[in-house]
Amino acid sequence: MTLDVTVWNENVHERESESVAERYPDGIHGAIAEGIETQLSDVSVRTATLEEPDHGLDEATLEGTDVLVWWSHCANDEVSDAVADRVVDRVHEGMGFVPVHSGKNSKPFKRLMGTTCNIKYRHGGDTERVWVSDPGHPIADGLPESFEIPETEMYGEPYDVPEPDRTVFVSWFEGGEVFRSGICYRRGRGRIFAFRPGHEEYPILFQEEVRQVLANAVRWAAPTEGAEAVYGEVDPSHRRDD
Amino acid sequence: MTLDVTVWNENVHERESESVAERYPDGIHGAIAEGIETQLSDVSVRTATLEEPDHGLDEATLEGTDVLVWWSHCANDEVSDAVADRVVDRVHEGMGFVPVHSGKNSKPFKRLMGTTCNIKYRHGGDTERVWVSDPGHPIADGLPESFEIPETEMYGEPYDVPEPDRTVFVSWFEGGEVFRSGICYRRGRGRIFAFRPGHEEYPILFQEEVRQVLANAVRWAAPTEGAEAVYGEVDPSHRRDD
Amino acid sequence: MTLDVTVWNENVHERESESVAERYPDGIHGAIAEGIETQLSDVSVRTATLEEPDHGLDEATLEGTDVLVWWSHCANDEVSDAVADRVVDRVHEGMGFVPVHSGKNSKPFKRLMGTTCNIKYRHGGDTERVWVSDPGHPIADGLPESFEIPETEMYGEPYDVPEPDRTVFVSWFEGGEVFRSGICYRRGRGRIFAFRPGHEEYPILFQEEVRQVLANAVRWAAPTEGAEAVYGEVDPSHRRDD
Amino acid sequence: MTLDVTVWNENVHERESESVAERYPDGIHGAIAEGIETQLSDVSVRTATLEEPDHGLDEATLEGTDVLVWWSHCANDEVSDAVADRVVDRVHEGMGFVPVHSGKNSKPFKRLMGTTCNIKYRHGGDTERVWVSDPGHPIADGLPESFEIPETEMYGEPYDVPEPDRTVFVSWFEGGEVFRSGICYRRGRGRIFAFRPGHEEYPILFQEEVRQVLANAVRWAAPTEGAEAVYGEVDPSHRRDD
Q1: Treating both helix axes as pointing N-terminal to C-terminal, what angle do A27-39 and A208-221 enclose, rounded to 10 degrees?
Q2: Are D129 and B237 an interchain contact pair (Cβ–Cβ within 8 Å)?
Q3: C-alpha span between A171 and A198 (Å, rounded)
Q4: Segment C99-138, tens digit of pLDDT
Q5: Which of A123, B188, D79, D202 is 20 to 30 A removed from B37 (C-alpha atoms)?
Q6: What chain D residue is nearest to B239 in terms of C-alpha separation?
Q7: Is the Cβ–Cβ distance between C50 and C80 less than 8 Å?
Q8: B-chain residues within 8 Å CB-CB of C129?
Q9: Contact partners of D by the rule of 3+ C-beta pairs under 8 A?
Q10: pLDDT, tens digit, for every residue of D113-160?
Q11: Which residues in chain D are contacts of C185 at CB distance < 8 A?
Q12: From CA D40, how far away is CA D153, in angstroms rounded?
């Protein structure tokens, strides 16, 4: 069964910064999509960006999406409320959602979390070591106990999110900070995995381990069948004369 | 130290239905406030309703509120987005929030949960038995192992909320349904307890055990000091030459 | 890839009670095994019982087991500490563990939980309605929103277990009680699902929905690859001159 | 209301190592007890050690203990099974339990967790920075956003414990590792807080922030009243002719 993945990217840094454009010639979405396609055989990946009508996330596209991977940063506020709500609704129905890096500031993620999602941060190329804190989790499949990202933007605790269902990764930064870099949630029928690495100033989304994590996350976040659910006004389920 | 409690009520049924007005002559907010004042000695309780300017929840009032108890039902959509966001922001800062009965459909609760909060329901006066599923929880302090509500509106599973941090009560209904009737969360620094009982068609908010639960919840949800938190851009915490 | 399932049963009631023997002519283990084989195509099921050497759970058998389904009741104390620890160790390594009914009182389950696992109970044939409280969970795949067990032994809250990772089912009983009937945990790399239904005095383990749940649980609890994990004394991961 | 705290220490390093004896002239238990007494006014602290009869933890002592703080390391195996089980039973009844440093390897903690509690470690005096990851938690009351322990033994992830109810602290180590240094659980009615810092080779248990955390933990882990709980065989709670 083919998994339908949509990789969404605001695609702004690529158009405004020459260095980002050189680093990610097919856009950050292109790099993420390529990584998923390389890692998974039974997957169909499309991309969508902010500038498209409906940001490329019209109802039919979302309806046909099993897992939405989301990269955003400077243009989070330009995403329309209607599209953000549409994404949230689809997550409730079962679509997986994988915000990457500052996608944690996106409207859909913040609406799904109900918190500010605030962090501390620092530019300047800290080395990051991403530790697997939950080696039994499927999103860690096939990984070493830790991997290094040579240079990145730092994110530091506290991370103002609800206590995660599972904390799969915790990062160490050269400058002295730590961060829960891979955290899992469910909202309605939808699985959510927020992954920290992926800054636009470094070629992180080409790194092998990062691609492995994202591929694992796509598989983990895929919708499952589940049970029937009935909401609204109902008659009694049990009667005295049953 | 006095705890500042605000009891908010949409106060619509009381004005539109004679029978509700007779049952709750001081409004549902009045009955809840009286119950809390009776149970707790070190508390200052005020009330606020939908019809007041800012729904009675201007910034100064919320700033001075330790715990907000919230009853709403038919007028959830009439609460302004601005006030709903203000409540959410104050919860993030540490204010306790206790939605009662269909307060689970209020804008603040749904924004804090990130889910639909859907349920099934039935009018008609089912008997409900509220079981303590977590007898070690402070919100269950002083309660028997279960208590009966002779007649009520039924709420049934599935309850579309995030997996609770703690499930304190689970209800049994005569007609064959069950419901997680008392569930705990934290969002930011704020504690949230959603309590199911409290339908306007029955004198439930005068019942002793219900008042005990609400008083316990107010104490439990009160803000605590916590630690400093720094967000935004920062210098390294550790330097090689430290 | 074939899933290796071992169904363990104390197999005492079947030998001591004529009515149980008639109801479960191949033993409760036989009924469970048949149900799993009927529901899943890619599975190899063996059975083991208390009376066998090592209770049929020698190291090689456990090593070759992906998921252990466990039924026990009156002979929980006769399981040797060594075998109980061996089961616990294998769960830590990744083996799934599915205690059924009073298997919740088994040594392995209690050691994995760290609590008493106490409940209240009643014989006498209550009707039970099992509600899906988490319709998005894979253990609920394909189920209606609830199903009825016409007659059973009642289990009632409080259920003295750690707050579950996920609560998939909550049961309603005719006599007025409720119970968290399907709860999920992880310990080490191993997935645990404790399922309430399955009393020996009724043909519950032949019931279609029960078999569906157990098959779903076996698939859900199957080991996954995971990441490398290094324990013990280590050299620094990061050096100043890196 | 006075809180009765017992500080337990194996008290072996102090007797076998001159440098530890000099660093902790009143024993590690003495240093912990002094810290708690200094921080909390309404507390009565006693100490107990391995060498005493019943390890100083006879039934009357445990019965009279609200919170048990536990330090152990090299002699974890010398604690008798009977005393370990007695501690576990008291936690189930409501006694708070605060294992410090390698107290995470103690029999009571491992029995309460149901996992191996394995970690990686390194001697040699890494600098540790303890970050508050949950600034709204009462165990973090009054703390800065992080504090430094100049020299310590390192503990590194993965930490083989059940996913914590709350993760209050996450540590950064100079050598490149991270660790969930303060984690909360409940088992039965008892609250558990496992705190990482506290190695015998450094004067960590005299450090102000460490003492603040332990005092906060003692207050947080104190028993609360809770509700009645009935276990065992029961009559129906609801009757048709009620």
Answers
A1: 80
A2: yes
A3: 13
A4: 999 999 999 999 999 999 999 999 999 999 999 999 999 9
A5: B188
A6: D174
A7: no
A8: 176, 178
A9: A, B, C
A10: 999 999 999 999 999 999 999 999 999 999 999 999 999 999 999 999
A11: 162
A12: 28
CA C144 – CA C130 distance, rounded (Å):
10
Size of interface B-D (CB pairs under 8 A): 91
D160 contacts in C (CB within 8 Å)? 92, 188, 229, 231
Domains detected in chain C: 3-114+181-221 (3.40.50.880)
Compute the nearest-CA separation of B169 from chain C (Å): 10
Query: Is A32 in a helix, a strand, or coil?
Result: helix
Contact B222, B98 (CB under 8 A): no
What is the Cα–Cα distance from C62 to C97, expressed in whole angstroms? 11
How many angstroms separate the CA atoms of C87 and B104, rounded?
A: 43
ipTM score of complex: 0.96
Radius of gyration of chain A (CA): 18
The label of the residue with tokens 């939908």 reads B50
Q: What is the mean pLDDT of residues B78-83?
A: 98
Asked if D145 and B230 come within 8 Å (Cβ–Cβ), the reply is yes
What is the distance in angstroms between the Cα of B88 and the nearest Cα belonging to chain D?
Answer: 15
B-interface mutation test, from D90, D137, D167, most B Cβ less than 10 A away: D137
Burial tier of B99 (Cβ tally within 10 Å: 0-12, 13-18, 19+): buried
Q: For B136, which of D129, D141, D186 is closest by C-beta distance?
A: D186
Residue B122, φ and ψ in degrees, nearest 5: -155, 130
List, for residues C136-186, the tens digit of each pLDDT value.
999 999 999 999 999 999 999 999 999 999 999 999 999 999 999 999 999
pLDDT at residue C1 in the model: 79
Q: Which residues pair with B190 in a beta bridge?
A: B187
Are residues B215 and B34 in contact, defined by beta-carbon separation less than 8 angstroms? no
Q: Which of A130, A172, A173 to mutate to test the interface with D (most CBs of D within 10 A)?
A: A172
Which residues of chain A lie closer than 8 angstroms to B186, CB-CB?
162-163
Of the candidates D136, D189, D242, the beta carbon closest to that of B188 is on D136
C172/B172 touch (CB, cutoff 8 Å), yes or no: yes
| Amino acid D229: pLDDT | 98
Residue with tokens 């970050």: D131
